[in-house]
């Protein structure tokens, strides 16, 4: 009994100590001097504004980074619009209509209406979409208790729509249809780019091309569990190869933690919003014996206000001793890799305890789900920071405060090679000497930057085509001394 009382006391003390520590990170723009090696490497590909003579280079750079910061942040809205359409198409929290299927989406493509049967299928899809939109608009009028609907309502209001006025509903429907058409056209374009990349003879070049696939796309907020399995697989191999020592990881950055809002592959909305990767990394580090004895501090970097607000609220709740519950759905119709199933079954056992999962709606009957109640002291050590990794970094002394590990999955794919190079410059300056960056995108290794790839691991999730990730490992050269 005394031992249990002591554990409770220690847990409470840990939460209070973390709560007493204010956010200590300041954000600065990458300077011209810090970006110089990237600018020289991409001299032939620079934006026109950066091709000035050297005496004017610094002022031109300062103007460009601030303008580019605003342009990148503006892409957040386009990503949120995509999530909004996914919610309308697949959500179950606001309607009893059936979910849209891949066959419906194919029927909704006018180019496929080559005969009467195809036209009838397209008409049925239109009726289904109209019915789901009607239910969605009715639910928006009373979004209480539904975080996703509340966010959707705010997004539509920011676009100038008053969802409470029925007379505006036709305009909202036209807006949603326009976004749906835009997304459909983008997906067709990405399919063409992907086919072009696959046609390349050199596998490395294929991976490089695929690593920039979404460079013109809106910045998506959505996330899922599967990349975290690939991260754990890589961490295990890094440990086995001696690149990560036992109990050596104390400071971690998660780039673009995201929110499980309405992912285009699943779009489950029957449980509250959640952010998976900050918790998943700690869970894996503990499972593999890599977490420092004093625990793991996680800094998340994101420019999406919804993500930062969610993590800030979770952290504040953890300071008050409230746990953070994560829902883990799994589609049994997918032939998952057995190792992934084992990961799904064990997820969270290092950072929490089993919890009662959310009730699966009838439309998703058969879906398997489990839940984990994460310990408050784990979430209380997460520090969300608003930061644009292409042009900004944390101001820190890499030798004393640098991160042991940075995880960046499904983030750098939204930028071209030049911007990936700038992002890598920022990430490098935040790593401690010898620290590691894990990314499922290939990024350019610029000479003189002080970081190099040291290997990779391929993880397959299921037997579906291209359902897997290559996690590349980049290590900061230990001899590099920078501030």
- pLDDT average, as an integer? 90
SSE succession: HEHHHHHHHHEHEHEHEEHEEHEHEEE
| Radius of gyration from the alpha-carbon trace, in angstroms | 23 Å
Helix content: 40-55%
Query: How would you name the CATH homologous superfamily of the largest domain?
Result: Vaccinia Virus protein VP39
**What count of domains describes the coordinates?**
2
Q: How many beta-strand elements? A: 12
Strands in their spatial order, largest beta sheet: 7-3-2-9-10-12-11
**Contiguous uncertain segments of 5+ residues:** 1-22
Taken from the alpha-carbon principal axes, the silhouette is globular
Q: Give the CATH topology of the largest domain.
A: Rossmann fold
The DSSP helix count reads: 15
| Amino-to-carboxy terminus distance | 49 Å
CATH architecture of the largest domain: 3-Layer(aba) Sandwich
* Name of the top-level CATH class of the largest domain: Alpha Beta
Please provide a brief summary of the model.
The protein has 483 residues and is of the alpha/beta class. It has helices spanning 2-19, 32-41, 57-90, 102-107, 116-141, 147-158, 169-198, 203-210, 226-240, 277-287, 305-319, 338-346, 376-379, 398-401, 417-430; strands spanning 27-29, 251-255, 297-302, 324-330, 352-355, 368-374, 382-386, 392-394, 403-408, 431-439, 451-460, 468-476.
Describe the structure.
The structure is a single chain. The protein is of the alpha/beta class. It has 2 domains: 107 residues, no CATH class; 251 residues, Vaccinia Virus protein VP39 (Rossmann fold). Helix content is 45%, strand content 15%. The protein is built from 15 helices and 12 strands. The strands form 3 sheets. The protein has a 7-stranded mixed sheet. A 3-stranded antiparallel sheet has the order 4-6-5. The protein has a two-stranded antiparallel sheet with strand order 1-8. Helix 10 links the parallel strand 2 and strand 3. Helix 2 crosses helix 15. It is globular.
């Amino acid at each position: 009994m005394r031992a249990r009382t002591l554990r409770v006391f220690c847990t409470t003390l840990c939460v209070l100590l973390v709560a007493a520590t204010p956010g200590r990170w300041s954000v600065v723009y990458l300077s011209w001097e810090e970006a110089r090696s990237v600018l020289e490497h991409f001299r032939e590909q620079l934006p026109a504004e950066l091709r000035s003579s050297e005496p004017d280079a610094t002022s031109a750079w300062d103007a460009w980074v601030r303008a580019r910061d605003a342009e990148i942040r503006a892409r957040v809205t386009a990503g949120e619009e995509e999530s909004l359409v996914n919610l309308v198409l697949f959500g179950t929290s606001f309607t009893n209509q059936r979910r849209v299927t891949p066959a419906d989406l194919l029927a909704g493509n006018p180019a496929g209406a080559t005969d009467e049967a195809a036209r009838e299928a397209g008409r049925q899809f239109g009726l289904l979409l109209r019915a789901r939109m009607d239910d969605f608009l009715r639910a928006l009028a009373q979004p209480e208790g539904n975080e996703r609907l509340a966010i959707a309502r705010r997004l539509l209001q920011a676009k100038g729509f008053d969802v409470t006025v029925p007379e505006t509903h036709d305009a909202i429907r036209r807006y949603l249809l326009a976004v749906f058409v835009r997304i459909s056209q983008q997906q067709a374009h990405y399919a063409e780019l992907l086919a072009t990349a696959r046609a390349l003879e050199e596998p490395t070049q294929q991976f490089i091309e695929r690593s920039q696939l979404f460079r013109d796309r809106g910045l998506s907020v959505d996330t899922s569990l599967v990349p975290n399995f690939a991260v754990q697989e890589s961490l295990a191999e890094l440990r086995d190869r001696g690149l990560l020592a036992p109990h050596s990881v104390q400071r971690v950055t998660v780039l673009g933690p995201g929110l499980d809002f309405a992912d285009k592959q699943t779009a489950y909305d029957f449980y509250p919003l959640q952010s998976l990767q900050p918790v998943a990394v700690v869970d894996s580090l503990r499972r593999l014996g890599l977490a420092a004895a004093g625990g793991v501090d996680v800094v998340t970097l994101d420019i999406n206000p919804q993500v930062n607000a969610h993590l800030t609220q979770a952290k504040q709740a953890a300071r008050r001793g409230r746990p953070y519950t994560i829902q883990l759905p799994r589609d049994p119709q997918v032939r998952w890799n057995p190792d992934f199933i084992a990961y799904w079954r064990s997820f969270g056992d290092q950072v929490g305890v089993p919890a009662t999962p959310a009730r699966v709606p009838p439309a998703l009957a058969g879906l398997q789900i489990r839940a984990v109640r994460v310990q408050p002291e784990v979430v209380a050590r997460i520090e969300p920071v608003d930061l644009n990794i292409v042009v900004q970094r944390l101001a820190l002394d890499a030798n004393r405060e640098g991160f042991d590990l940075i995880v960046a999955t499904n983030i750098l794919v939204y930028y071209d090679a030049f911007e990936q190079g700038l992002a890598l410059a920022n990430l490098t300056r935040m790593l401690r000497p010898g620290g590691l960056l894990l990314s499922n995108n290939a990024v350019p290794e610029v000479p003189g930057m002080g970081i190099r790839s040291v290997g990779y691991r391929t993880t397959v999730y299921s037997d579906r085509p291209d359902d897997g990730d290559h996690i590349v490992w980049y290590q900061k050269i230990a001899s590099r001394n920078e501030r």
